[in-house]
Fold this sequence. Notes:
By secondary structure, this protein is α+β, with helices and mostly antiparallel strands.
Amino acid sequence: xxxxxxxxxxxxxxxxxxxxxxxxxxxxxxxxxxxxxxxxxxxxxxxxxxxxxxxxxxxxxxxxxxxxxxxxxxxxxxxxxxxxxxxxxxxxxxxxxxxxxxxxxxxxxxxxxxxxxxxxxxxxxxxxxxxxxxxxxxxxxxxxxxxxxxxxxxxxxxxxxxxxxxxxxxxxxxxxxxxxxxxxxxxxxxxxxxxxxxxxxxxxxxxxxxxxxxxxxxxxxxxxxxxxxxxxxxxxxxxxxxxxxxxxxxxxxxxxxxxxxxxxxxxxxxxxxxxxxxxxxxxxxxxxxxxxxxxxxxxxxxxxxxxxxxxxxxxxxxxxxxxxxxxxxxxxxxxxxxxxxxxxxxxxxxxxxxxxxxxxxxxxxxxxxxxxxxxxxxxxxxxxxxxxxxxxxxxxxxxxxxxxxxxxxxxxxxxxxxxxxxxxxxxxxxxxxxxxxxxxxxxxxxxxxxxxxxxxxxxxxxxxxxxxxxxxxxxxxxxxxxxxxxxxxxxxxxxxxxxxxxxxxxxxxxxxxxxxxxxxxxxx
Length: 524
């Protein structure tokens, strides 16, 4: 079955090779999805994060275990007994790609910018509720919080909290993250052609790689060229033909072929918390009734979707949080139980009656919710499968895929009942704080879920000074949002890195859908 697909795409893949020949000095990568921009503070978008992590750095890095913050730009830190004051000691040998010396003032500027209302940073909460930032000397930062934040160090590993150069931000203005951006990472931003490619170049002065890498820098390649290749079959053909060195978005339906291909190596990211879900905008009349939301969730067969659509490269998800994640609540596994007849009964009770065309109606309105998602990746096929299941209970999803460069803007318009993304996360608390805090309305809390109990429990979890108190609070949040059926958890998606066997030193990282983190150990 694979040969016709590969043949159809082979000409395209060889054309890329002519345009961008692979050399020992150039590392060639493929992505399926581009981003609207590469300013980390103004987005939640995964396609921004992986590129940003290559050319900008955080105070702390995330170790391979996906749980442990380790020194990076900050070589050490101390925390006050009340959990409110973090004192970071910074490296004194770091420079930006521009040559500017990195100091504590850059840290202070970066977090002040993140918290500036003008930025409208959707992930600003990841930095905690900052009271004051101080730089008592060029290589010390006093990071004072209004309230304790139990996962601050974990959150500081995320792309949202990378360190920026004020001079670069102000010089580029609205074009920051579009025409350029300065950073201290192992790669430097060279150019971006939207929907086509991103080009990064080696940061020759870089020598401060985190301890998780053998090579502390610089990287072994002069350039990293990332091509945007939306078509699944084209990415498969290009890797099989040896035209690219690696991709973190190899189509799941072809992973079994990649694993036996003599020229390729497949590695799974472990651990991996990556949920494909469909969320309900509960402020929309069509889905404001919990019974309607539950009916849609229990009417689908997740095991069939995992096997038939993802070909076994995903696990059925009956809960929002993966059972291996920190602070997962086992009691939530009993809430979603697939039951077609119960789904029909719930819709009947909610007043939605089957019409002559088989679609349910209420007060002259058809039960035809608009469903928004990005047209690349696994979501389109999963959405089509769910659409088929829901026809059996009289629900007709109106599917609306969008190009990745405009999907976020379309979702911001609020004109839909349901949306889907595949969300990566670090822990139960991470996921709950991202999506269910009312402070994050309208994004990433696209449900427009505003609940005093949820907000209180999230606050207790964030402020906890020990593991037990944190876990208790986050477990109660999981129970609440699961019983409200605010999301349809569908699949826990496996995450792969597929590389050419000539590429050595590749190891996938789990952070925010990336697998490719810094690339310091890569060689031919």
